[in-house]
Amino acid sequence: MAVHWFQSPRGAREGLRFLALAALTAATACSNGSAPTPTPTPSASARAGTTITVTEKEYSLALSPAQATSGTVTFVVDNAGTVAHALAIAGPGVSNAHTSTIPPGGRARLTVALRPGSYELWCPIAKHKELGMDTHLQVRGNSSASPTPGSAAASATKH
């Protein structure tokens, strides 16, 4: 004898509800009664990293914000000056991270994994560093991030 639950849309919905309830009941009966252990997930800030805007002009560097927590930091470098600039960074685990040359009105991105400590940022073009394009960034520890020392990526664009 065949059961015809699915002869109408309403019967089909009721049949699907019954099957879903039966599957849920079977899954519950097979469980050991304990709640699943939640898996810790990194906070949104740890996943996204930190972004610092660096404004370069003759002859200064301005950081916003002027602080960072260890982990992945992306420097968005805006050349607000009238001559070409670039950005270089050195500190614990970072020795050769820099952007390409950024034309006036251009923008570059430099992503670096930073550990706690002090980092020097400067413009590596000609004598720009000696003319005042030099600053320091203090990086605080972050227990939820474990950066890979020395990893860096850079790109430059004109906007």
CA-atom Rg in angstroms: 27 Å
What is the topology, as strand order, of the major beta sheet? 2-1-4-7-10
- Integer average pLDDT: 76
Order of helices and strands: HHEEEEEEEEEE
Give the overall shape: globular
Describe the structure.
The protein starts with 8 loop residues before the first helix and ends with a strand. Residues 1-6, 27-47, 145-151 and 154-159 have low confidence and may be disordered. The chain has two helices and ten strands, in the order ααββββββββββ. It is of the alpha+beta class and 159 residues long. The strands form two sheets. It has a five-stranded mixed sheet. Strands 3-9-8-5-6 form a five-stranded mixed sheet, with no helix packed on it. It is globular. It has helices spanning 9-30, 44-48, and strands spanning 50-57, 60-64, 68-69, 71-79, 88-91, 94-98, 106-114, 117-122, 134-140, 152-158.
Task: Name the features.
single chain, 159 residues, alpha+beta, five-stranded mixed β-sheet, 2 helices, 10 strands, 17% helix, 39% strand, disordered N terminus, disordered C terminus
